[in-house]
Amino acid sequence: MKIRVLKFGGTSVATAEARRQAAQRVVSAREQGYAPVVVVSAIGRRGDPYATDTLIGLLREIDPDVAPDPREMDLMIACGEILSSVIFAHLLKTMGHAAQAFRGGQAGIRTDGAYGNARIVEVKPQSLVKALSEGLIPIVCGFQGVYIGPDPEPGKERAPGAELTTLGRGGSDTTAAALGAALGAESVVIYTDVDGIKTADPRAVPDAVTLRQVSYEEVAELAHLGASVLHPRAAEIAMKFGMTLWVKNTFSDDPGTEVVPAERFAGRKTTGVAAMGKLTYLSMNLGEVDGASRAILRSHVLSLLARHGMSLYVTQISAHGFGFAVRRDQFARAEALLDGLVVPLGSGSLALVHVGRHPSDRAATQAGLLDQAILVPVDLTESCTLVSVIGRETMRHPGIMRAALAALEEAQVPVYQTSDSESSLSALVPEADADRAMRALHSRFALTEAQ
Amino acid sequence: MVGSQRGVNFSISTLGPGTLFERPRGISEVTITQGVASVTISGLEAPEAAARVRLLGLVADRGVNIDFCKLIPGGLAFVVDEAAVETVEQALAGTEVTLRRGRAVVMVHAANIREEEGLLASALERASRSGVELEHAGDMHDRLLLVCAAEEAERLREVFS
Q1: pLDDT in the model for residue A424
Q2: CB-CB: which of B4, B67, B117 is closest to A310?
Q3: Whose CB has fewer CB within 10 Å in chain B, the N or C terminal residue?
Q4: Helix A52-60 / helix A70-94 crossing angle, nearest 10 deg
């Protein structure tokens, strides 16, 4: 008997009726001769009583100025999947199918110790194997695992218990893929509320089409650049173990999208378009700084940003400037770090960084005290997003950047910066224009003809 | 492991210990692509967006593939295969352009380099402290790309080892 892992996202378990339809998928897999292993997300989405975002809100609303401890936050948000798994297991029981709920750790998911963004380091699925051998359907909490820590020093005992960790956004997909690999599953099916992987988000591009087959590489690139149907870490695990993934709709009989190795499907010229991020672009004008000092200033700024854990996007270095984007939720921290920053450039000269059009009190005070400092203005472009075209073969053709920029110019979408690789091309555009930009690129690259 | 479910036998082959499921955090590899030239176009007239499209068209019409395109104030920059330099020079005749042969692209590979907090900033900081002149930088979700003089590429790679 072959194992099939079925993962149900938040909308697939959001209501009693949705859960019944999801459970019917499990029963159907069993009737087809598979031994099903189920992975569930928390019930519902933002605003629903047990959704992950709701649980986060319960901690944050106590005092928005005090960040919850990451360990406590993981304990909190893991409750959503625990509730979901127990309810789903009981539902199956009422339908005449014995099932057993497992927390991530009980299912053998071992992670590193990065609370909130843990990575799977090992899977020991013996408890699931035992449950399967007893005729039970395991229902596993997605998105979570445990951190056990390094082996204790000789003569010392291991600390009792294991620390609960969560895998970050999209973690339930990652759980499903890792369990599929560890159990040697025939396939992993990601059930969601859309028909499969599409050429674009249909909310932005109404004529987006469902792709019937995609390669791991295509889907990983799409997911990394913002397509939200399948998490890229799940695609990467499936790719590593050569395991077939499906993305299907819980609520329809559409055949869905099959994700396969490149040997079975080499991919298409252009795969899709996607948008990601709420970003602020910072462009540092180094025109007044001499060549040797530019590297000093840049490394000083980067060191600060790195120490404070800032994520950067679309970096750019040129003879006269240095630019990068930060997430909007990190911008206030970036601004506080940089505005009014004084950097010694060597040979007694100083640079004073000034962010935006209006100097902060700190920057103004510093400017008053340091009248000999070289002023380094940082221009801000707020409310940006990164819109991308994905397509390995398309990227090899001369003129791809011209075609993309021309399409955006015709659609009157300003482009602040670009980024490209052998499989994708991205443009930083105003967030308000993101949908129009996606439609323009989708049309220019004839993605309605993709299948 | 062998078991049975509802009277049907099945076998499960679980993976051995030490199996790596996810790519480890941090920098995994640094690779170098030699034999490229950098092209920097400046002095574009307004509207810059239209001027950029027109100039990229001149290059594309000659069949030259460009990589690593970045917008800079009043212009744009990209790299091409060194063998295409003369073609690019002809295509952009009459334009304010700086061509630098003998460049290399140093690619710093790291899973999720943008999202892992501080990782991209840290990698770029190390490159900036290396003493190697960075002429150009860019990033994708799994790598940082740096352009420098070909003879400096190994030195740049070493700062990540």
Answers
A1: 92
A2: B117
A3: C
A4: 140
